[in-house]
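User: Before I run my own analysis I want an independent prediction to cross-check against. Here's the chain; please return only the structure tokens and, at the end, one sentence I can use as a sanity check.
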Amino acid sequence: MQAQLEPRYVLIVEDDTFQGLDLVATVEKAGYDALGPFADCQSVLELLEDFIPDAALLDIRLEGKETTKQVADILTDFGVPFAFVTAFPGDVARRMPEHRNAPVFSKPCRPVDVAALADRLVKASPVP
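Assistant: Structure tokens:
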């Protein structure tokens, strides 16, 4: 009998419903459990009080003037690998210079690239 592998969770923060659902489908097809898509930071912050994912894909700009900076800060504190998936890649350096070393993927992304990114992030996770 083979040992059952623990599920690996990828947090998705994306305020565009269709893009968020595409990211979820791609992550799940890659073999991971998707958390989200979350369209606002408050919902994510509530989740992070009780559960820490293995990896995360974050849009930078959300509805209005909200950014995912606070989420990125918390993920960094917990050592969770993440990447920005955004239509505004220059925003990382301008709005979140402390996260400028995080991977940045420009939207639109090909599903194969998102799957490879999720795989790379999960494998870099400190969770065994």
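Sanity check: The first helix runs from residue 17 to 29.
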